[in-house]
Design a protein that fits this description.
Chains A, B: This is LacI family transcriptional regulator. Two copies of one chain form a homodimer. Chain A is of the alpha/beta class. Helix content of chain A is 46%, strand content 14%. The first copy, chain A, binds a DNA duplex through α2 and α4.
Amino acid sequence: MTLQMIADRLGLHVSTVSRVLHAKPGEGLRAASSPTVERVRKLADELGYQRNPHAMSLRTQRSNLIGVLVPRLSDMVLATIYEGVEEAAAEHGLSTFVANTRDIPEEQRARTEMVLARRVDGIIFGDAHSDSGFLDEVAARGVPFVLVNRQAEGHPSVVCDDYLGGRMVAEHLLELGHEDVAVVAGEPYASTGINRTGGFADRFREAGLPIPAHRIVHSRFDARGGRAGTERVLASGPPPSALFVVNDFGAIGALGALRDHGLRVGVDIAVVGFNDTPLAAELPVPLTTVRSPMHEMGRRGLRKLVRVLEGGRAETELLRPELVVRASSDPQQYSALMKH
Amino acid sequence: MTLQMIADRLGLHVSTVSRVLHAKPGEGLRAASSPTVERVRKLADELGYQRNPHAMSLRTQRSNLIGVLVPRLSDMVLATIYEGVEEAAAEHGLSTFVANTRDIPEEQRARTEMVLARRVDGIIFGDAHSDSGFLDEVAARGVPFVLVNRQAEGHPSVVCDDYLGGRMVAEHLLELGHEDVAVVAGEPYASTGINRTGGFADRFREAGLPIPAHRIVHSRFDARGGRAGTERVLASGPPPSALFVVNDFGAIGALGALRDHGLRVGVDIAVVGFNDTPLAAELPVPLTTVRSPMHEMGRRGLRKLVRVLEGGRAETELLRPELVVRASSDPQQYSALMKH
DNA sequence: CTGAAAGCGCTTACAG
DNA sequence: CTGAAAGCGCTTACAG
């Protein structure tokens, strides 16, 4: 099924058929006479004509392809963000290539080259490292891109207002009277962990309760990382009265570590996560957490990239977080839960 | 950077350059004289030449593109399988388009058409419905494809031996003396849930303990679905002594429902999941489950598709499951856990 | 060993 | 309103 075949059957030239089928809304009228337009559209429909994207890309030097790089898709947070990207991309007639970089610089480089070799029009990075010059290099090469989830100085991004989210958690714990708290803070190169921890620590400092350095530990963003981080917190002194783990999966790992130490979540220690993944509400002791608009972040990231591709300006966009209080930190909800 | 530019600088014809740069290993020698080969390779290297994939696809009628359809990437099981697919694809010089179909037939159709419009060479379906003729239609159109995770009559697939896995769980629970058990069985159209439940029920029947129909309930494959399914089990009679939830995320939801009913997992009721996602081991009460080789399944699925594309035969491949016993079903491990 | 030609399927300025 | 031409960047059988 090609334009040529349609043209032949209709006794028209291929260029006429092309104009009719792919004229932009505004110039649809000048493509051909209306009887011709009718005939062409009808036949194309009957034959189920599909434009060949490779021919089009070759000719127009535009692929309608987007590269998406994430640390790992098996992290539900990134997978959900990607679902938003993919959904919005489909609505814009774009297709996406996703690849895992596992937060390893060489893989970030290799995967970037790979999608560029595939001639993507632009890239969405979900794996920005705040301490690396890699994105500056990419920008210097003139590759259009935006960041999602994590931000980096000088590049457009769509992220949750992580700093504010961290403050909200602190506010909540301060209201409950917690004075000795600890943070499992995620990877040191991820703006998410940095800003969530920053907002949290700043709010406690403002309350006259600065958090000592040994109460803040770095960690991987998965359940094992959360467990390991929590173990280090517990090894460094008496258990704090509250623990902020900067992502839900890490918080789940923390639950395991706490239970190994005989600490009852919601009674002996309050735990707060971040993201409000669907798991948080379903846990045996439901997890207090901060809802971040992951799906929406993906959608907006894609739209921002489209704007960049159209030559528009793009600033960093902060999405509003929302505290969701559950039994893991709220004594009232906890005792309601136990009334069975 | 095009072949033409390299040819010009070297005073060669573009066809010679093409032959040198892209000759297959076997015919590499006959591409040009070795000094010419040297010169071409060197310059291509210096200039960082990258073949234009659109031009190549247009010319060769092969895109080196693979479509991957999954219910949803935010399901960690599918995300992990996809990671295997993507990894193996990269090794084979293939790129992938992934799309979510949310297990909705219209979306399965729409996304299939979408990847086909992108001219993929073949498709990997992770969302097969055993009660639908859709895959037969796709096969009838001559589209090469393989299934992963879920199987369907008459189509090549790579899946876990779910029936065996179900039997293993039954065996384990029978050894522990459980006689009154229930199953949260997943979606009725998914071979995973069907076969895991089938193996489990068969083994109990063989032991002279057939499971009554009301003890087997269908459910969605996420935490909320597991919770809802468990609620229905508990509503339909006295609590069973053991509960088999056919996937880990569902099992996590079950934990929530059980705790709402005041049932202590590992004491009042045994719980077993399926997949051994990284979360299972980290839960407050670690979850007994069946390890299924998700990543490997993805890798093998891609390789099987490559074989199909090369015109080879392809049968269904069953991967071996492995029972992982933890405290949620094992009284010994449970009491060891409590010794703090 | 290397070149020349044809053609994959499209788009787009131009001519009539 | 429609056609004809050129060309995007490659590959591949063929000729010399």
